[in-house]
Amino acid sequence: MTAATLMLVHGWGFDASVWTGLAARMPERSFLSLDLGFLGAPARPAPTGESPVVAIGHSTGLLWLLHERPFVWDALISINGFPRFVSGDGYAPAVEPRVLDRMLSRFDRDPHAVTADFLHRCGHAAPPAVLNVPALREGLEWLRRWDARDSLARERSPLLALAGEADPIVPPPMTRAAFEGRGRVRWSGTGGHLLPLSDPDWCAREIRAFLTERAL
Predict the structure, then answer these.
(1) How many C-beta atoms surround the C-beta of residue 196 within 10 A?
(2) From start to end of the chain, where are the E strands?
């Protein structure tokens, strides 16, 4: 069987370059990176249908995959991901809605400062010079309003969730509430919210083992 194509979707405030390190460590694999357009023009390549597909979402990228279901996949991998970002409607622990409300209000006044503050919290020291402000604001609305828990509950393909014990954006209790009992959850003991950037070797090992076990 042809090896699976890995379809990658980045998180809020980033672009497809977040995957460069991971792709370099898995040269035997074919990658297609979707770009949600937060830092430039969007790009949304589609699978060719010639091989199985593994969808990989980082942070908001996983929420986008579950909510939009843009293509059919044979396995799903979350990296620092979540099916819903804010608490409420019986969903906890998660981020308080008022946090997103404040971000949206501040974003309308100073989008560069809000983006820089978020990236700094993630541990990313160099905020981008060019922002696609409308796309970033739309992404904040996704985080405030989208709830893809039902989509995750209906998921029947194999699931791997990679998470960081030191993640300041999606802390361990939030990850456990979302994924434990639904698939394999693997933890980086020192990893934060940017595992594709900070721990690409570990991510590559975990993903390769997961795919090998499932002959994908």
Answers:
(1) 25
(2) 5-9, 30-34, 53-58, 75-79, 159-164, 184-188
pTM of the model: 0.96
- For 4, which DSSP code? P
* Residue whose tokens read 């357009």: 37
pLDDT tens digits, residue range 52-75? 999 999 999 999 999 999 999 999
What DSSP state is assigned to residue 2? P
Q: What span, in angstroms and rounded, lies between the C-alpha atoms of 71 and 11?
A: 18
| Cα–Cα distance for residue pair 128/30, rounded to 1 Å | 27
Q: Which residue(s) pair with 187 in the sheet?
A: 163
The answer to whether the CB of 102 falls within 8 A of the CB of 140 is no
Tell me whether the omega of the peptide bond preceding residue 45 falls within 30 degrees of 0, making it cis.
Answer: no
Could you tell me where the beta strands, DSSP code E, fall in 35-169?
Answer: 53-58, 75-79, 159-164
